[in-house]
Design goal:
Number of strands: 14
Shape: globular
CATH class of the largest domain: Alpha Beta
CATH superfamily of the largest domain: ATP-grasp fold, B domain
Order of helices and strands: EHEHEHEHHEHEEHEEEEHEHEEHH
Largest sheet: 6 strands, antiparallel
Radius of gyration: 20 Å
Distance between the termini: 16 Å
Number of helices: 11
Bound molecules: adenosine-5'-diphosphate, magnesium ion
């Protein structure tokens, strides 16, 4: 039976640009086109969609409820499909799930704790290390002092933000070969992005990203490989913010890698997903070095649903579609809450 789905999201215009903001300040936020595609997918699945908007819009709609009359919320939705990245602070992705949980409103996707853990790449890396999941060696630099002493890894390094996504803060200059470059990039992350810098061993090789769907058990989808200027052997190249909107960057699916490596990456992706308590959907990013050793870069429990990205690419390889996968993800969440009659096995992994 069709459900009423509330949609929470952050449009790029949710960010009011200040004079000191970097050029990529709203990199993670959504385009109206993505929202329309999600709405169309659920409508095609026989559901109604109510556009709620960002956390402030959610909050103001929740505040109209009358708890004294036993009314916990007045959204009048069966479940919320949340893709809010949030705008302020490192708990920003956790805000919508916290409010929904407080009000007892079912929602699709991971909870506040998982979103907090994974937005902070260093916290997530510590968990990966504790479970023996391979991740690139790193150190954290809160200032440009003592960098020489802190860097026991050597060069090249990549210098990144700790709690941003969508390659925000990542440009060609992020790969550094010497102390001078390291100081320059650490200063940039500290001063402009206002957070400690995550300095990681640069993994020369190929880059893979893999969606994981479902809960009992979660399953890894076909692997998507990043190609730059027509080459999947990226070597020293990587996914910069500029490249997101350039034709130089393309996706190859299934990835041109051995059956053995495919299996290894998919198994690792599921381990990563479970390690941070992901639910319903997620996407794990990897680099694989030239010897074939995989390293987890991060997991995204709120992966991009932009139709240009992997959630519109891997479905085609399994004879499915963007719309069918989104409806399937909804089905996983409905099943978790006991709101759906179907068992997980009955939810088709095919397009209608
Ligand atoms: N250790 C690394 N070695 C090589 N390239 C990296 C490394 N870490 C990140 N990158 C490059 O930077 C991109 C963004 O890094 P990632 O950690 O996935 O952060 P984001 O949250 O911005 O996607 C990656 O897709 C990859 O191309
Ligand atoms: Mg990434």
């Amino acid at each position: 039976m069709g459900k009423t789905i509330g949609l929470t999201y952050n449009l790029k215009t949710d960010w009011v640009c200040g004079p000191d903001d970097p050029y990529d300040v709203n990199a993670e936020l959504d385009k109206p086109h993505t929202i329309e595609k999600i709405v169309q997918a659920f409508e095609a699945g026989g559901h109604r969609v109510k556009r709620i908007g960002n956390v402030h819009q959610l909050l103001s709609q929740l505040q109209l409820s009358q708890p004294e009359l036993g009314q916990l919320d007045n959204l009048n939705v069966d479940i919320v499909f949340n893709i809010c990245e949030g705008t302020v602070g490192r708990n920003r992705e956790s805000q919508v799930p916290m409010l929904l949980e407080l009000k007892g409103i079912p929602y699709v996707g991971s909870d506040a704790l998982t979103l907090g853990i994974t937005l902070d790449k260093v916290v997530a890396k510590k968990l990966f290390i504790s479970e023996g999941i391979p991740t690139a060696r790193y150190f954290v630099a809160g200032s440009t002092e003592d960098l020489e002493k802190q860097n026991t890894i050597g060069y090249p390094l990549i210098v990144k933000t700790i709690h941003e996504g969508s390659s925000k803060g990542i440009s060609r200059d992020s790969r550094v070969e010497d102390l001078e470059g390291l100081k320059r990039q650490v200063h940039l992350i500290n001063a402009v992005y206002k957070q400690p810098a995550l300095c990681e061993e640069f993994i020369k090789g190929t880059e893979l990203t893999v969606a994981v769907l479902g809960n009992e058990p979660p399953r890894a989808m076909p692997i998507v490989q990043v190609s730059i200027d027509g080459d999947t052997n990226l070597g020293d190249e990587f996914y910069t913010f500029e490249r997101i909107s350039s034709t130089a960057l393309q996706y190859v699916c299934p990835a041109k890698i051995s059956v053995e490596l495919t299996r290894k990456i998919q198994d690792l992706a599921v381990r990563v997903y479970k390690c941070v308590g992901c639910r319903d959907l997620g996407r794990v990013d990897f680099r694989v070095d030239q010897k074939g050793n995989p390293y987890v870069l991060e997991i995204n429990p709120l992966p991009s649903l932009d139709p240009k990205d992997s959630f519109n690419i891997f479905p085609k390889v399994i004879g499915s579609s963007y719309d069918a996968v989104l409806n399937q993800i909804l089905g996983f969440a409905l099943a978790r809450y006991g709101l759906e009659q179907k068992t997980l096995e009955e939810i088709p992994l095919r397009s209608r």
